[in-house]
Amino acid sequence: MAKHWSDNDFLMATYGVGPEDGHLEACAACRAEFERRQHLRRQTAETAQVPADFLVEQRRRIDARVERPKHGWMFRWSPALGATAMAVALVVWQAPLQKQAPAADQPVAQAAAGAKSDAQLFAEIYQTASDWEPESVTPVKALFEAKQ
Ligand SMILES: [Zn+2]
Q: For the chain, which residues make up each domain, given as ranges?
């Protein structure tokens, strides 16, 4: 005899897509279980009627919450406040950079001095970036140097 139906088999059969292996006709235990489940399903469907006044009351409470949101003005305006804060921060951050940049009416030598200091700054940054390596790399690097 084939093995008994699983919960999934019963569930699928309830919706008409269960296994068509003829097991229900051959096995009295599974047939009884299937009929018990069908009876329970019908019983549940009958008693699960929701009273209309409950639904009306539920709808009224949903409408009340939609019309009167729980959160205050701070929650509603927080995206706008965030965007404003970002714009202010950007302006504040950009202000010192604009002071350092040479203006068009300044002498050329002064502008060249500014450009030179920028070049020095970038050279120092490049040097720092190329010299830096994490401490954990040193033992691995030593392995490769030893093999050379
Ligand atoms: Zn069975």
A: 1-68, 104-148
